[in-house]
Design brief:
Elements: E1 3-7, E2 10-13, E3 18-25, E4 34-39, E5 46-51, E6 57-59, E7 67-72, E8 77-82, E9 91-98, E10 104-106, E11 110-115
Parallel strand pairs: 2-11
Antiparallel strand pairs: 1-3, 3-8, 4-5, 4-9, 5-6, 7-8, 9-10, 9-11
């Protein structure tokens, strides 16, 4: 069974930093790309960052230069380092994997709140 468990969220002041973690199980972690998405209150879930199985990363324009995605295959974990946080980064953050049948799997999410 595919499982993704996010952690590391919290309350931080604008300009601060947080590091989110996503621990995966139930699939061959090394073979899959992992994404981070976020959903703010009253808004649709949106893409934030993505890392391929080879370690190539991509970012939404809104987080580029402030967020860094990385992965540790030995720990089956993907990280999202978030620096210079802004109030508009407030959201529930989810990690995602899509399998070979294009089925999407999501974690339970972790809340990030940035105060101004």
């Amino acid at each position: 069974e595919v499982q993704l468990v996010e952690s590391g969220g919290g309350l931080v002041q604008a300009g601060g930093s947080l590091r989110l973690s996503c621990v995966a199980s139930g699939f061959t972690f090394d073979d899959y790309a992992i994404g981070w998405f976020r959903q703010a209150p009253g808004k649709e879930r949106e893409f934030a960052a993505h890392i391929t199985s080879y370690g190539l990363s991509s970012y939404a324009d809104s987080v580029k230069g402030r967020f860094t995605i990385s992965r540790d295959n030995g720990k089956k974990t993907v990280y999202l380092q978030m620096n210079n946080l802004k109030p508009e980064d407030t959201a529930v953050y989810y990690c995602n994997v899509r399998d070979r049948t294009y089925t999407n799997y999501w974690g339970q999410g972790t809340q990030v709140t940035v105060s101004s």
